[in-house]
């Protein structure tokens, strides 16, 4: 019941973790029986800006391991959910980088004791995680569980063992596949808009990106798949934020695009009807800071980059 309440409240992205726990506590208290309560550590991760917002309701502190192997404790304050009819919670916010790791755990992962009555301990857990950072999150957790069991010297642990490890990387944080139809272009444009709007972009920068993507998507649909026999053609859009840059990659399986065959635009020739097309490519390259075309294994890759800290950014570094 408590998890359902928190999940429902978390759907409202206008609520920060502190408010989610505050409202969740009031609802859980109303339905709690026989003094039942629950501890919670709530985290909201925004991959677009690499931020973690968090708050705690009587839960043990969590750990953020930086890519240089330094680490810090993430803590909040507030009573467990369901103890008091009204309560306030205090959390915080921090920025993560590719290579960082977040350890979420329950006290059973560090309070297990050996035959000498020594606890496994938080620092030991952190050291063991760092020593295995080259492994996947699942592999780290499995090996950590084995270490705790071996440390205890008993077949069954005294308390529950719950550990979750989140690894932050520089992969493309947002991805979606669209049908290569003109009717999909507005959906594609809306996807890009919803993805980049969380960044502090100037209106002109946002408009540049949207217009460039609109042109690129239209070129794929109208020209890339023109006169091809592919059934249900599609194109994929991937978006990544790194530092001050936004990178957008469009991937399709249409005809190979040869940039060198596209002449520079001529207003006179286009207006007179001597030449058609060419403006879309020119426009994309003027709106973005970097444009790159490549093809490999039957797929075409268009990489668009924009530096959103550069207020005068309208270059054409191709």
TrEMBL record:
<dbReference type="InterPro" id="IPR001932">
    <property type="entry name" value="PPM-type_phosphatase-like_dom"/>
</dbReference>
<dbReference type="InterPro" id="IPR003594">
    <property type="entry name" value="HATPase_dom"/>
</dbReference>
<dbReference type="InterPro" id="IPR052016">
    <property type="entry name" value="Bact_Sigma-Reg"/>
</dbReference>
<dbReference type="InterPro" id="IPR036890">
    <property type="entry name" value="HATPase_C_sf"/>
</dbReference>
<keyword id="KW-0378">Hydrolase</keyword>
<dbReference type="GO" id="GO:0016791">
    <property type="term" value="F:phosphatase activity"/>
</dbReference>
<dbReference type="Pfam" id="PF07228">
    <property type="entry name" value="SpoIIE"/>
</dbReference>
<dbReference type="InterPro" id="IPR036457">
    <property type="entry name" value="PPM-type-like_dom_sf"/>
</dbReference>
<protein>
    <submittedName>
        <fullName>Stage II sporulation protein E</fullName>
    </submittedName>
</protein>
<dbReference type="Pfam" id="PF13581">
    <property type="entry name" value="HATPase_c_2"/>
</dbReference>
<feature type="domain" description="PPM-type phosphatase">
    <location>
        <begin position="1"/>
        <end position="168"/>
    </location>
</feature>
């Amino acid at each position: 019941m408590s998890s359902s309440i928190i999940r429902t409240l978390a759907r409202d992205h206008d609520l920060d973790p502190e408010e989610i726990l505050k409202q969740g506590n009031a609802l859980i208290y109303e339905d709690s029986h026989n003094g039942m309560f629950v501890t919670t550590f709530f985290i909201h991760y925004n991959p677009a800006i690499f931020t973690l917002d968090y708050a705690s309701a009587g839960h043990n502190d969590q750990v953020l391991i930086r890519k240089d192997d330094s680490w810090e404790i993430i803590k909040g304050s507030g009573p467990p959910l369901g103890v008091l009819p009204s309560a306030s919670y205090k959390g915080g916010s921090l920025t993560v980088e590719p290579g960082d790791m977040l350890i979420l755990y329950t006290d059973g992962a560090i309070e297990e004791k050996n035959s000498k009555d020594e606890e496994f301990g938080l620092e030991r857990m952190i050291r063991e995680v760092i020593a295995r950072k080259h492994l996947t999150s699942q592999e780290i957790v499995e090996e950590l569980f084995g270490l705790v069991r071996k440390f205890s010297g008993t077949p069954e642990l005294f308390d529950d063992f719950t550990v979750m490890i989140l690894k932050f990387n520089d992969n493309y944080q947002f991805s979606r596949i669209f049908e290569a139809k003109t009717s999909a272009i507005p959906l594609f444009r809306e996807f890009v808009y919803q993805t980049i709007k969380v960044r502090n972009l100037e209106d002109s920068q946002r408009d540049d990106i949207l217009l460039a993507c609109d042109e690129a998507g239209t070129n794929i649909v109208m020209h890339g798949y023109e006169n091809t026999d592919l059934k249900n053609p599609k194109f994929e859009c991937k978006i990544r934020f790194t530092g001050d840059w936004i990178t957008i990659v469009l991937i399709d399986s249409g005809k190979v695009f040869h940039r060198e065959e596209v002449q520079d635009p001529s207003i006179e020739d286009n207006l007179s009807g001597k030449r058609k097309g060419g403006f879309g490519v020119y426009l994309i390259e003027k709106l973005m800071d970097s444009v790159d075309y490549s093809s490999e294994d039957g797929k075409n890759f268009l990489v668009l980059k924009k530096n959103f800290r550069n207020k005068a950014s309208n270059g054409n570094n191709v």
